[in-house]
Design goal:
Elements lengths: L2 E6 L6 H6 L2 E4 L2 E4 L2 E4 L6 H10 L5 E3 L3 H11 L5 E6 L7 H11 L4 E6 L4 H16 L4 H14 L1 E5 L4 H5 L5 H10 L4 E5 L2 E6 L4 H18 L4 E7 L3 H14 L4 E6 L2 H7 L4 E7 L5
Parallel strand pairs: 1-2, 1-6, 6-7, 11-12
Antiparallel strand pairs: 3-4, 3-5, 8-9, 8-13, 9-10, 11-13
Helix pairs in contact: 3-4, 5-6
Length: 285
């Protein structure tokens, strides 16, 4: 069976990954006033953050439309027997709901929407594993079962310089975010049950990053299986690469990847966010 793997732009894969792993994506959009830009199509990440610096009002974001999904699915139906469509958490975006709605209306190909429960690097782990299994000729059921396993096995943590955007966008509760903002702390944030929640209250960004590493170190020490990890950054590449370089030296058994937070996630995290995600590495088992 020929299975197409579809995701959305918040997986933030690079062009090589999309091409070599034969992954298709539908873009989300960021909105500046009346101007709408599809991320990684109409605007690059660098262009987005530079535009934010000079914007009078914070941008917003929007999910792909039903039409976007319909067009992509229809373009794949002649070359594939089924589509597995994996998207960012339904608790923070309506992207999955739109994919689900279109999937039920497709007549010439079966579409299987998957709510990753995550975003960014956490979503990317599921997408790349699905693509790897599809290449091996695994069934739709086998792939979806693996994605459910990954969802429960993936950890994701990040710290932002300013919580304002997350609170205004409704991605972090006003109660939790307001207290942190008032006290001027840098909380380590995580995702649980598809939602962004505070994990620990830290006074400085440096200590918050160190806390993420401590959590990672504990996982590496206690894990009975190989681990893969991804460091992500929001327009602070040098800081992100320094962090990953130090991790690579300390944890040589881990397979590391480096990624970024693009416009749609960047709308909420703001510039300067640092994070990391890790999970089981099935490719080495």
């Amino acid at each position: 069976m020929r299975i197409a793997i579809v995701t959305d732009s918040t997986a933030y894969l690079n062009e090589k990954e999309y091409t070599e792993d034969n992954i298709h994506f539908v873009p989300l959009s960021c909105i500046f006033g009346k101007e709408v830009y599809k991320e990684e199509v109409d605007i690059t990440t660098d262009e987005f953050f530079e535009k934010v610096r000079h914007a009078e009002q914070l941008p917003t974001s929007s999910q792909p439309t039903v039409g976007d999904f319909t067009a992509l699915y229809e373009s794949l139906q002649d070359d594939y027997d089924a589509i597995i469509s994996i998207h960012l958490s339904s608790r923070i975006s309506g992207t999955f709901q739109n994919a689900f709605s279109v999937a039920r209306s497709m007549e010439n190909i079966s579409v299987h929407p998957v709510d990753s429960g995550l975003a960014g690097a956490g979503l990317a782990f599921q997408v790349k594993e699905a693509a790897r299994m599809a290449k091996q000729g695994k069934s739709v059921n086998d792939i979806i079962e693996r994605l459910e396993e990954l969802k429960s096995e993936t950890e994701i943590y990040f710290v932002v310089d300013d919580l304002t955007n997350l609170i205004k966008g409704g991605r972090l509760s006003r109660t939790a975010g307001g207290v942190a903002t008032l006290l001027k702390i840098k909380p380590v944030l995580t995702m649980r049950a598809g939602e962004i929640i505070p994990f620990d209250k830290i006074r400085t960004k440096k200590k918050a990053v160190r806390k993420m590493e401590e959590l990672f170190e504990e996982s590496v020490k206690n894990s009975p299986f190989p681990i893969q990890a991804t460091v992500v950054h929001a327009y602070c590449e040098e800081e992100g690469r320094q962090f990953m370089s130090s991790l690579e030296e300390k944890y040589p058994t881990v397979r590391f990847n480096f990624s970024f937070l693009g416009p749609v996630v960047g709308v909420h995290t703001g510039e300067g966010a640092i994070g990391m995600s890790w999970t089981k590495d099935y490719s080495r088992m």
